[in-house]
Amino acid sequence: MVNLDDLEVLQVDREGMLQLLLDLPEHVQTGERLGLTADLPRATDVRAIVISGLGGSAVGGELLRAYLSMECRVPIWVNRHYVLPAFVGPQTLVCVVSYSGNTEETLSAFAEARARGAQLLAITSGGQLAEMAEQAPVPCIRVSGGMPPRTTLGYLFTPMLTVLARLGLIADQNAPIAETIDLLRELAAQYRPGIETFRNLPKELATQLYGKFPVIYGVQDFSDVVAYRWRTQLNENSKVLASHHVFPELRHNEVVGWDRPPRRAQDLWVVLLRDSQELAKIARDIEVTRAFLQERAAGITEVWAQGRSRLARLFSLLYPGDFTSYYLALLRGVDPSPVRAIDLLKERLASS
Ligand code: PA5
Questions:
Q1: Reduced to 3 states, what is the DSSP secondary structure of residue 242?
Q2: Ligand 1: which of 51, 97, 100 to mutate, most ligand atoms within 8 Å of CB?
Q3: Are the beta carbons of 208 and 299 closer than 8 angstroms?
């Protein structure tokens, strides 16, 4: 295995993913400013909020749903489809998000939301979505282009959060955003390549996951989105398969699969996403399940949330996953940025 403390290893990162990861706190800050200065959608008598997008453009919506699940009085639904659910109509606020602005499913959902008279907001770096928003016209938040969509979470998530607060649908988000930015800056300093493996959590985790199948477990309506993000970052950055599930549901089905895993159980490494504020019942659930898994998995690593606000705690769980997937890519000798399989299939679909 290559040595992650030898900075020569960074040469594998030909397209500069590292800087984009380190810049997440700055992206959150810029995203907040974009949201504070954006034109607002109509937003009258909003009964539901839908965020429509795919892949790297959907995860900000998932984060919003998980973050606001205990606060927002209207349901938040993430739509990853060409079509919209039946409830969408004039009393639905639909945020259509596509980083490139050219994702087929998302453009189709935008057209459908317009036809149903929904209250619309678009977020994109350009493409056809920007044109459609201008023609409609509907408010459109424009973010900088030229980055892999999965690295633009701060740009895509934070404006939605700020806009919801400006519309009075949720409380003011100034304080939690400020805490999140500060905490992310601290974590970025701890996770950078110059910090040796023995005191660098993501490097240590990447070393543990090397050659293993990562299984990421979070908690419903909080770190469920984080578990999903870890998985997709491991897919896209490290180019590995991974799985994720959530407590308490996983104790009612997934655990049975541990008796006959698809690979030798000794190839499976579990990451448990923990939070000191998780419900006592959930904590007990995790402890009991961890003891069960301990006898079966190659290893278990717990990653604990940091910070006070729910937002900072969520980001503090998500951020080490981004870096772990990055360091695992370096260990595997693969450039974290290119996603050839996604590009290839998009091209095939466009010409079919
Ligand atoms: O990571 C990726 O490149 C993908 O998951 C994209 O985000 C996804 O294909 C959708 O594209 P876009 O984000 O441009 O709408």
A1: coil
A2: 100
A3: yes
> Contact at 8 Å (CB) between 224 and 231?
no
The residues pairing with 95 across neighbouring beta strands, listed in sequence order, are 51, 121
pLDDT reported for residue 266: 74
Q: How many CA atoms lie within 13 A of 218 on its CB side?
A: 21
**pTM value > 0.90:** yes
Query: Which is catalytic among the residues 81, 104, 179, 346?
Result: 346
Alpha carbon of 99 to ligand 1 centroid (Å): 7
Q: What is the pLDDT of residues 337-346, one digit of tens each?
A: 999 999 999 8
Identify whether 236 is a catalytic site residue: yes
Of 299, 298, 296, 300, nearest to 286 by C-alpha is: 300
Query: Residue 96: CB within 6 Å of ligand 1?
Result: no
Question: Is 252 annotated as catalytic?
Answer: yes
Which ligand 1 atom sits closest to the C-alpha of 56? 7
Give the helix ranges, DSSP H, for the chain.
Answer: 17-22, 24-37, 59-68, 104-115, 127-135, 153-166, 174-191, 201-209, 224-233, 254-257, 280-294, 310-332, 340-350
Least Cα distance to 315 among 250, 223, 218, 210 occurs for 223
State how far the Cα of 206 lies from the Cα of 181, in Å rounded to an integer: 24
Predicted local confidence at residue 274, as pLDDT: 98
CA–CA separation, 253 and 266 (whole Å)? 20
101 φ/ψ angles, rounded to the nearest 5 degrees: 85, 10
